[in-house]
Write a structure and sequence with these properties.
The complex is a heterotetramer, with two copies of chain A (about 325 residues), one copy of chain C (about 500 residues) and one copy of chain D (about 280 residues).
Chain A: H1 2-24, H2 32-57, H3 65-81, H4 86-111, H5 115-134, E1 139-140, H6 146-151, E2 155-161, E3 164-169, H7 170-188, H8 190-200, H9 202-207, H10 212-238, E4 240-241, H11 249-261, H12 271-290, H13 295-319
Antiparallel strand pairs in A: 1-4, 2-3
Helix pairs in contact in A: 1-12, 1-13, 2-7, 2-8, 2-10, 2-11, 2-12, 3-4, 3-5, 3-10, 4-5, 4-10, 7-8, 8-10, 11-12
Chain C: E1 6-15, E2 18-28, E3 33-38, H1 44-51, E4 59-64, E5 67-69, H2 74-79, E6 82-85, H3 97-101, E7 109-110, E8 114-115, H4 117-130, H5 147-159, E9 169-173, H6 181-196, E10 200-204, H7 208-214, E11 217-222, E12 225-231, H8 237-245, E13 264-272, E14 279-284, E15 288-293, H9 299-307, E16 314-319, E17 322-323, H10 329-335, E18 337-340, H11 344-348, H12 355-360, H13 364-367, H14 376-389, H15 406-419, E19 424-428, H16 436-451, E20 455-459, H17 463-469, E21 472-477, E22 480-486, H18 492-500
Parallel strand pairs in C: 3-10, 3-11, 6-9, 9-10, 15-20, 15-21, 18-19, 19-20
Antiparallel strand pairs in C: 1-2, 1-4, 4-5, 7-8, 11-12, 13-14, 13-16, 16-17, 21-22
Chain D: E1 3-8, H1 14-30, E2 33-38, H2 43-55, E3 60-63, H3 71-79, E4 84-87, E5 98-100, H4 103-117, E6 121-127, H5 133-147, E7 151-158, H6 167-180, E8 189-192, H7 195-207, E9 216-218, H8 224-231, E10 236-242, H9 244-259, E11 268-270, E12 273-276
Parallel strand pairs in D: 1-2, 1-3, 3-4, 4-5, 5-11, 6-7, 6-8, 8-9, 9-10
Antiparallel strand pairs in D: 10-12
The chains are: A mainly alpha (about 325), C alpha/beta (about 500), D alpha/beta (about 280).
The structure holds adenosine-5'-triphosphate (2 copies) and magnesium ion (2 copies).
One adenosine-5'-triphosphate (ATP) binds near residues 20, 38, 41, 45 and 46 of chain C.
Amino acid sequence: MIRTIRRYGTLIGIIAVILFFWINIPDTFMTARNWLNISQQVSMLAVTAFTMTIVMAMGDFDLSVGSMASLSGIVAALAFKAGVPVPAAIILALGVGVLGGLINGALVSYVGILPFVATLGTLTIFSGFAFLISGGKTIFGTDIPASFSGFARSGVPLFPAGEQWVFLPYLTLLALIVLLVVWLLLEHTVYGRRLYAIGGNTEAARLAGVRVRFLRFSAFGLTGLGAAAAGLMYASRVASANPTQGSGLMLSAIAAVFLGMTMSEEGEPRVLATFFGVLILGVLDNGLTQMSVDSYVREILVGTIIVLAVASSSLSKLEQR
Amino acid sequence: MIRTIRRYGTLIGIIAVILFFWINIPDTFMTARNWLNISQQVSMLAVTAFTMTIVMAMGDFDLSVGSMASLSGIVAALAFKAGVPVPAAIILALGVGVLGGLINGALVSYVGILPFVATLGTLTIFSGFAFLISGGKTIFGTDIPASFSGFARSGVPLFPAGEQWVFLPYLTLLALIVLLVVWLLLEHTVYGRRLYAIGGNTEAARLAGVRVRFLRFSAFGLTGLGAAAAGLMYASRVASANPTQGSGLMLSAIAAVFLGMTMSEEGEPRVLATFFGVLILGVLDNGLTQMSVDSYVREILVGTIIVLAVASSSLSKLEQR
Amino acid sequence: MNAPILETRKLSKSYAGVPALKDGSLAIAPGEVHALMGENGAGKSTLIRILAGATKPDAGAIFVDGAEVSIEHPSQSRRLGLRFIHQELSVIPELSVAENLFLGRPYPRRFGIFANWRELNRQASKALDALDIGHIIPSRKMARLSLGDQMLVKIAAAFLDEDGEAARVYVMDEPTAALTSEESERLFKVIAGLTARGRSIVYVSHRMDEVMRIADRVSVLRDGETVATRAISSISKAEMIEMMTGRQIAEAYPPRQAAATSGTALSLTGASSSSAHDISFELHAGEILGITGLSGAGQSDILRLVIGADKRTGGGVELDGRTLAGGTPATRWADGIAYVPRERRREGLLPRGSVADNTVLAHLRTLSRAGILRNRRAELKRSADIASRVKLKSTGVTQPVFQLSGGNQQKVVLARAILGAPRVLLLDEPTRGVDVAAKFDIHTLVRELAASGVGILLASSDLSELIGMTDRILVMREGRQVAIVPTDGLTQTRLLALSFGEPA
Amino acid sequence: AGKIAVITPYLSQPGTQFYVEAFQEEAKTNGWDVNVIDTKGDVAAAISRIEDVSTQKVDAIVINVDPAQVAAGLETAKSDGIPVFGMDAGASPLLVTNVTSNGYAMAADTAAYTANRINGKGNVVMFVFDAFPPVQARGVIADAIFKNNPDIKVVERVTPDVSDGGIADSRAKMEAILTAHPEKGSISAVWAAWDQPALGALQAIEAAGRQDEGIVITGIDANPQARDAIAKGSNFEASMAQDFKGIGRATADAVKRHLAGEKIKQSVIYVPTKLVTSANAKE
Ligand SMILES: Nc1ncnc2c1ncn2[C@@H]1O[C@H](COP(=O)(O)OP(=O)(O)OP(=O)(O)O)[C@@H](O)[C@H]1O
Ligand SMILES: Nc1ncnc2c1ncn2[C@@H]1O[C@H](COP(=O)(O)OP(=O)(O)OP(=O)(O)O)[C@@H](O)[C@H]1O
Ligand SMILES: [Mg+2]
Ligand SMILES: [Mg+2]
């Protein structure tokens, strides 16, 4: 029983929240339309959180993801402005993400700086670059090609509902693909298992022949790539790029991973659990808005529910002693 | 030699930065006036960082300090508005800080939630309350008593310079007092030494009879108190209170502590080292602004210098292996 | 017998339904050394952790001076006069030696608030001198001490006298596992002094000779139950082993199976790292080469140099005649060198990982599909095979290793090293904390590996193990190699003399 | 009774607060049920909330954010048949109408005031914020006016950190600038694109004891703290009053007319602005 709560406390919390909204917003909450909305709303956070799970598997952090997301959006927008074709601009922006991530990785693994400090430093640097190259301006309007901003507004047609079709938004699809890839990587490849070994005990992993430095280096590159992708998704969704737009992503992504960690038995970050972490954050925002809860009260409730969900699983873990 | 760099890398970095500014801004940088300015500008960050060092000595974090600073400013301002006398309003705001800190402490030590998650949750909650009770508005003007805002504009007269006197600002004095108190607490009381013991090896400390739970609980209370004090200092300096005004403090405070950690032998947080961490951040901002460095480039430089300072000591630590 | 000073009756404790201790009953008389024996995982540490207030029992009672007590927190246990040296080294590396000694106790103070450092260091110095370990400087950071010295500080901490809270029973969980023989001797001297003053000792060790020498009585735990308590004078080693294991085992070393072949597996020529200098030897295929020396002489450092954990600053290393350049542990394992590090918890184990995760860690690629996709089925099968080969006691290969007893954790690290059929095996204290029966199993295994042509380097502080297992022994002193001697005909005394610097 | 959602990422800005309040007052008299949603600077979250209230089928949505950036949400609202109104948002075919002050005129008025007061010559410090499009426009207009005066030199164009509201960082920046320009008269004016930096600059000038050098400070928005400073006759001489309440009321009026079935023809409804100096600051 206690074991069940411990393991499933967070999951039970999510289900309770969903039931609550279903009962209180009977007409609109539990509809395909609304769930697709939610999925699209959280897709950028999801991609950031999924790829953040990669470095967190090693016990590291990446605080720079938000700045990187802003920077990648700005890079793409400036490339558009300079007449670079959309695919090339996207590749450029993703390349900046990988590069920035690898810089983090090099600082952490080859230079030996604590991830917290290294990525705090690069957070400032990336953000500075985003401001510098954009001149601090929001890039919007005709500078952003319609094919780019159209991506976030379209999707794969699923089924007709009345006169309109219901679409699976491309943003949602993209997030699901990233989930699948990160899941395969972390759970089903040698690479992923080694990341978890580093997270378990870095020195033991090194002495057992794990190439700790190279793995940390490369894992940060992947997280940087994810952050850049999230930045592009964001830019596409708001049809503009702004040097601060990713700043909310970092803390939420870390929160989602931690929420997920309460669901795994050993308290390890697992990407499927991160998925539920993202879900709870998205559902709370959506449901509470639909219930016309004051936005500040909503914030307090979200914080409280996070703490309660985590508490339920932590308390029962304490009992175990 | 390598040992020296390892230990003093960050300090050498600070000295290099100061010399650089001295040479490039010969007339105004190395003046008492300017240093007093710097000291006053960083005083709020300093108080936050000094008290953050208390929980970081235990290996914990407090992400909620920024929200708490905002909340305490709002509480005091609303109390002023309601006609509460200044000293009572200040005590009330500090009390909110202690209470919030103890809530963090209870979540971390009695409920057993990771500090990162617990304080991420309360970050949201405190911020929500700050917005809720202020209605999201900035409180300023005649609502703020002159005796309160006057505090940040006055100080202890030091010596005459021309027609004017040079003052030691009260904000600076307050930060120095907090430094002294935290230093005595951490380095010269059994309480402080036990916090370091918890940070070094929690299980060993517990087995040796250290009351780990109570210590963690109370230490968070002290950090909350410091955050609230910083919030009041901030409100006094800007003669107004705004529900987001503390938000920049958290990352900077953690950065300052980490910067300091590079200066201690075993990499543990020490409050005197945190002082230098705060100093480097303040000096960089002041000097680069005086040199008319573009604000975005300044941001990039600050990030780079942080990384370099830390790198110099990390690289030489790697060599040791 | 006098009325017991400390008694436990039917203590029990289960973890997730699996019993760790079922009937822990002990009665400790004043002034005696009471040995607590049992196989790995028998429940000794669990019983001790309950006494220390580190774990809550499910049932049972504890009596001090005949009165029932409840122990909720380590500080309560201390007030009752119990002192502990726990199995896993638990020090605070960031604090000074003196502060580690006074951990959890009131420091001497000034004005009632501030620590009086001078007085603290003085008292610490006194405590260290009393244990004859005055070479340890109280103001030094714990992190700068060797493992053995750290253990001695922990021991000194248990012996620290305090006003008003006189110690009555000292409980020591394998205190000598990390000590050299000279350091152990110091401990025994202190123990003799304490019992002479009427203090009691509960002493856990897997070293039979020690127990026979210093204990007055012995209690044996088997599968979580106290099976007997006997006077040491009325029992033989063989009987004791049979009580522990339920079978008869020779407390001896397995015989050499075949002569070492002559081919060279590993050779070092003037190899150096920052802490081991100018090391040269040839390890033959099938040979077991021991490494000895005083504490801190650099025994471990040779192994760390070979596996690539420490940077090589000079000289050469050849494996099967092939020069190994540069190198990290990753390339060394790939070359066919396997390693059992010295400190299993810090350097060996992923504590939250399962037995399988831990054993396959160094072999993920060989067990994978196409070198990329992990093959979970193969991982589970191979780790189950190897676990049974080292006679691991666990609920299965999916059990997390932090739940295993100390000796079984050691076997997991060993299992990892032999899973890949290595060419050269580096063993640093491979049987530390392993029970008699399992030690025999491990020794047999090492012999078999040698017979199959594996070259083995064995660093151990257990001189009888070195003499019983090796073909030749390399003696280290102050980071330098001083001699390589054939094991045949060596005595422990002679070996110790060599370590102290007597010419070979 | 109608259900109206007001969505903005910028509620902590005093201006936004005023028109939201005025809107709420009007709403009360109309018997509407208003839900004010603040996404705290997050534009994508504003889209999400627009989608959520569309799902909820509110009667009208009022936004205070660039409509081009939230077009994804506006399209959802459109397909759900929910009218969206801009309250100082920006013009867009996806809006019924947008109610706003004339930002170009405001920047032109204060910049021209400054140029006039310093007789078209001297060093000017500008505080700008180009990340926020309406404020960016103010900077561009002021740039043009200063450039048109050959003897005016813009010595610093500062973007303060606004995460704390903008006063504290602007003050620190101004202190450093003053330290870097120590001679009397070396700074003639400070032009700020909104009031907070002007207030920060004023504090810095007073703290440095240089209030008697005749440095002219102007802001835009004329918030109460700024009005106080202007009324006192400090260096902070002028600001522009937008009629925030007017914007809020005019928006409510537009919503009311639309709900009543009237077709609103103007894509932008302008609400007049006014220069505030010590003469009229107390009003
Ligand atoms: N936290 C835990 N969770 C689950 N099982 C545990 C835990 N701690 C100990 N056990 C189990 O309890 C049993 C007894 O372990 P204990 O550490 O008391 O053995 P021991 O006699 O001290 O052995 P050793 O000589 O190897 O140190 C073992 O089977 C072990 O796996
Ligand atoms: N980082 C360090 N700084 C200062 N002294 C150190 C450091 N590391 C080790 N020492 C000291 O160097 C000596 C050699 O340590 P080493 O770890 O090589 O010993 P060892 O041969 O493994 O012996 P054992 O671990 O059994 O004591 C010890 O006396 C130790 O205290
Ligand atoms: Mg044990
Ligand atoms: Mg060693």
